[in-house]
Automatic annotation (TrEMBL):
Compartment(s) of residence: Endoplasmic reticulum lumen
Residue runs in coiled coils: none
The keyword Zinc-finger appears for this protein: no
Keyword Thylakoid (UniProt): no
Origin species: Zalophus californianus
One Gene Ontology cellular component annotation held by this UniProt entry: endoplasmic reticulum lumen
This protein's UniProt keywords: ATP-binding, Glycoprotein, Nucleotide-binding, Signal
GO molecular function, one term: ATP binding
InterPro entries to which the protein is assigned, alphabetical: TOR1A_C, Torsin
Protein name: Prosalusin isoform X3
Length: 159
């Protein structure tokens, strides 16, 4: 959604609005999934503050994140949802934030990828992949910059 030109999303408004039936087809049971990177910095900040407050990442509640994500979307004039009827009419049912992954999550990704390759996990491979992964913020090195997206290629490089 953050790559979509503002206003273009309005073509979906009839499918999400109160009518549910468009051109004779009932869209009541349709599920629309909109993916966006907007709000990522705010999500990371909430996760970091939770960690600094000695709260587990899994303890972060959706109610903490929804307002900051919504505000990030509404404040961004380049976002596909900016000033859209979908947002103004509150037609989105749920925001599903993707929290940043910590070192132990990336470790699990490495183990899963090795299992997919039919390889036994070796500590030196795990460590090499984790050491080649970028973590932030700079002082804490807490969250993976790319989640697990680069794990497979890093494993291939290490092997």
């Amino acid at each position: 959604m953050d790559k979509l030109a503002p206003g273009l999303i309005e073509v979906l408004l009839p499918f999400l609005g109160s009518s549910w039936v468009v051109f004779g087809t009932n869209y009541r049971k349709a599920i629309f999934i909109f993916i966006s990177n907007t709000g990522g910095e705010q999500i990371n900040q909430v996760a970091l503050e939770a960690w600094r407050g000695r709260r587990d990442r899994e303890e972060i509640r959706l109610q903490e994140l929804e307002p900051v994500i919504s505000q990030a979307v509404l404040d961004n004039p380049h976002h596909g949802f900016w000033r859209s009827g979908i947002m103004e009419e509150r037609l989105l049912d749920v925001l599903v934030p993707f929290l940043p992954l910590q070192r132990h999550h990336v470790r699990h990704c490495v183990l899963n990828e090795l299992a997919q390759l039919g390889l036994e996990p070796r500590e030196e491979v795990l460590q090499a992949v984790l050491e080649s992964t970028t973590f932030f913020p700079e002082e804490e090195q807490l969250f993976s910059s790319n989640g697990c997206k680069t794990v497979a290629s890093r494993i291939a490089f290490v092997l």
